[in-house]
Amino acid sequence: MTYVRNCWYVAAWDSELAQGQPMAMQIVGERIVLWRGDDAAIHALEDRCVHRLAPLSLGRCEGANLRCMYHGLLFGPDGGVLEIPGQDKVPPQAKVRAYPVAVRHSWVWVWMGDPAQADEALIPPAVGYDDGRFILGHGHLDYAAEARLICDNLLDFSHLTYVHAASFQAGPTFAERLPEITPLDRGVRFSRWSQNVPNIRDPNSAERFDNYMTYDFLLPGVLLMESASFTAGTAASLDFGPPDFDTAIAGRNFTSQAVTPLTEGTARYFFNWGPHRDHGDEAMRDGMMQLAAMAFGEDKVMIEAQSRVIAGSPGQAIMPIAHDRGVTLFNRLVERLVREEGRAGT
User: Fold this and answer.
1) Cβ atoms of 254 and 136 closer than 8 Å
2) Among the four residues 60, 74, 87, 282, which has the most C-beta atoms within 10 Å?
3) Backbone φ/ψ region at 20: left (φ over 0), alpha (ψ -120 to 50), beta
């Protein structure tokens, strides 16, 4: 798997990890156990006891520590064995890998690279369900496909016209017009104005809007998108530059999404979505989440089918088109950082 190691991967929603209940997870092919100690701090270790290689995720939480429930070895949050039943001496090599963990924006993040380089400033600035500005629903979806294919999908919204014709009903604009694309240090930014758009919330209304959408797609595979409707003519008055979202007149919303590689051919897709408090309520959020479930199901069908074709077509190259610019920029960034990590021995 070609993925950057020196970055933060989403392992779970904060609310998924109950105190005293270890949880198994895989990230970029590595088995990890996460648990929340008595002090509410979350820890992550390699999910493997040093004795008989039993999974520590079947263990028992004891304070901040985790006991293997096969033969009773007790592990501290740093991965070191603290106790071996039946013997006084603990060998110095009795230790498993510990992973840096952070809780931000309602997500549990795990650093998969060199622990000495774990910098919480590199956590993407997502909006979580604990953010008071937006009313967000959340969930996750498991894919029988490589994470890269999901990232490629999120880096090219021209598929909205076709894959989501039944759900988002985006129309031809997303396929016919290219977005504005800006390279970032750790990702790519996309933005798009749609002018003189009908009021989809009230088909009988003669009112027209200018709609603006912008999202950053950041390492290792995190999409952060805000969109809203503005008075018709706003796009031209701003020379098609970014608006002040506080001046939106309808439909302001935010979504945070994260793609986490599990194994070579599986991934987990985390997402939230909902309206700004000034533009909607819990009922609107629930309707948006129902729409998201339909749309993300459409993506899943297409991407898993694509994955099967790729698996049965070894060596077959793709043919890039104009809409692939964002895909190319992001994948080149990943490849460059992976090469740099290889030279550094990460």
Assistant:
1) yes
2) 74
3) left
Handedness of CA 18, 19, 25, 28 (dihedral sign): positive
Six-digit token string for 64: 């901040």
| Residues whose CB is less than 8 angstroms from the CB of residue 175 and which lie 6 or more positions away in sequence, other chains included | 158, 160, 161, 162, 323
Helix (H, G, I), strand (E, B) or coil at 10: strand
Total domains, the chain = 2
Report pTM. 0.96
For the segment 291-346, what is each residue's pLDDT rounded down to a tens digit?
A: 999 999 999 999 999 999 999 999 999 999 999 999 999 999 999 999 999 998 87
Cβ 138 vs Cβ 301: under 8 Å:
no
Residue 110 identity (one-letter amino acid): V
> What is the Cα–Cα distance from 184 to 53, expressed in whole angstroms?
42
Range of the domain at 37: 8-122
Burial letters 160-176, b for 16+ CB under 10 A, else e: bbebbeebbebeeebee
- pLDDT, tens digit, 9 for 90 and up, residues 159-194: 999 999 999 988 898 999 999 999 999 999 999 999
Looking at the structure, tell me whether residues 109 and 149 fall in a common domain: no
Same-domain status, 200 and 254: yes
**324 shares its domain with 195:** yes
Q: Are residues 330 and 197 in the same domain?
A: yes
Q: How far is residue 113's CA from residue 191's CA, in Å, rounded to a whole number?
A: 31
- Residues 168 and 269 occupy one common structural domain: yes
Q: What CA–CA distances, in Å, run from 192 to 124, 174, 241, 247?
A: 21, 9, 9, 17
Residue closest to 261 by CA, chosen among 301, 222, 213, 314: 222
* In contact, 177 and 195? CB cutoff 8 Å: no
CATH code, domain with 143: 3.90.380.10
Q: What is the CATH number of the domain that holds 63?
A: 2.102.10.10
Pair 104, 189 in one domain: no
Residues 151 and 296 in one domain: yes
